Amino acid sequence: MNIPQYFGSILSEKTGLSAVPCAGLIRLSIKQAGKNPDNISVRDLKNVFQDQLRERLERLNMKDINNLVRTLVMELIKTQSIIAMSVT
User: Fold this and answer.
1) How far apart are CA 35 and CA 42, in angstroms?
2) The pLDDT of residue 84
3) Does an H or E element contain 2, and which?
4) Tens-place pLDDT, residues 4-57
5) Torsion of CA 64, 50, 8, 30, to 10 degrees
6) Fewer CB within 10 Å: N-end or C-end of the chain?
């Protein structure tokens, strides 16, 4: 599973922005946290959504950031077993 692409498409749906820049925001947020986008734990990804990604969304003056982050975290919880299996 390509985590930035997967969650970028969800962020894209919720914001109306293109999926590629949304995936880039997630990838940059993961890297800002010092993690590897191709090998990140569910716990670390949740923290990235709640911290680094939230900060980036605030800097972009996005609306309803709490709901955006909550949506991503809920999807992360729903797919955590798939994500855990894809991280080696």
Assistant:
1) 12
2) 73
3) none
4) 999 999 999 999 999 999 999 999 999 999 999 988 999 999 999 999 999 999
5) 150
6) C
With tokens 């900060």, the residue in question is: 55
Q: Please give the tally of structural domains in the chain.
A: 1
| Confidence bin at 81 (pLDDT 50/70/90) | confident
Distance CA 41, CA 63 (A): 28
CB 72 within 8 A of CB 7: yes
List own/partner pairs for 35-42 with CB under 8 A and 24 or more apart: 37/3, 37/4, 38/3, 39/87, 39/88, 40/3, 40/87, 41/84, 41/87, 42/76, 42/80, 42/83, 42/84
